Amino acid sequence: MSARDTILARVRDAALARPEAATDREAQVAERMITGPKGIVPHQGQATGPQKLRQFLEKLEANDTTVTRVSSEDEIAHAVARELRKRNLPAAIRMGEDPMFHAQDWGSLDVSRGPGRLEEPVTLSRAQFAIAETGTLVLTSGPDNPVTLTFLGETHFVVLRTEDLRSGFEDMWGDFRKRGLDPRTVNMVSGPSRSADIGQVLQLGAHGPVALHLFMVG
Questions:
Q1: Which DSSP letter does residue 193 get?
Q2: Engineering a disulfide at 144: which of 4, 67, 71, 98 sits with its beta carbon 3.0 to 4.6 angstroms away?
Q3: Model pTM greater than 0.70?
């Protein structure tokens, strides 16, 4: 047996001798991620109650994100249809397999499901959380809400439950872990795509949607 084989055998034997060790370490890491010491939270990440919502709406406006408030999930499809007409957009929308959207009666809208496509005028996603500190929507990838819907539509509609609004990033990440989310990708979206690379002139839709509209439920 070579020296290399001897070393690897020792490592293997040590691991097999205590199979619970890896499990213990994983549990300790998971516990620390949820209950570990927290860093300093800036003032604007500490808003609560009505002030949290006001701050969020102000940040959305500053980020060029428009908003529709609806009282229940049952109103989502009607609100989407109204917004499409208001923007003079086709009565068609692309979305994933999110159960919230499957429960809707989309009526005469042309609904397609799957990843985003370049020719799509409007896409629809659901945000897992939002952050009042910066007016940011937190979108996770997966079949329910394919990540390409976030970037390939000319106009991006997003649905958020008001109860999923968090004050700051620290609150969001803590609840993100408690919810057991484990997506391949997390996208944090603050307004439509923009760039000022050319001549320092701000252009919306430079690398993604030219418009972002949020439907807040509740």
A1: -
A2: 98
A3: yes
